[in-house]
Every structure is written in C-alpha cells, then in structure tokens.
Design a protein that fits this description.
The protein is mostly helical and about 60 residues long. It contains three helices and no strands. The radius of gyration is 14 Å and the shape is elongated. It comes from Urocitellus parryii.
Length: about 60
C-alpha cells in the first residue's frame, strides 16, 4: 500500500478531492448513497476551510 506524503505547504483545493458524478451516475445512486456523498463532501469542505485551504464558496460543487 503506497502512502502519499505532502509537505505542509502543498496546496489542496476542493476540486482536488471532490468526487463528481454525471447526471446518469447520480440517478443510479440510492437515497442512502446520495446522503453519504453529501455528508462526506461537506466534511471534506469543512476540513479544508478549517485549514485555510478553501473558502465555503469554493466548496460548492
């Protein structure tokens, strides 16, 4: 298993970590999967904001 080590100065944006779905893929997700996706993306956004690596407006996907 490979480990990725980033320096403390590495720039990370929401776009670097967001998972996106096409409209067709999104329609194939059930309600629980959609809810989990939204919760995870909000958590990632919150972490990036708390680190000063993103703003709330940059987390809109």
């Amino acid at each position: 298993m490979a480990t990725l080590v980033l320096s403390s100065r590495a720039l990370v944006s929401f776009e670097d970590v967001v998972v996106t779905f096409t409209g067709e893929e999104w329609r194939h997700l059930n309600l629980a999967q959609r809810t989990l996706y939204q919760e995870v993306m909000l958590e990632i956004c919150g972490l990036l904001v708390s680190l000063g690596k993103a703003s709330l407006s940059s987390c809109r996907a």
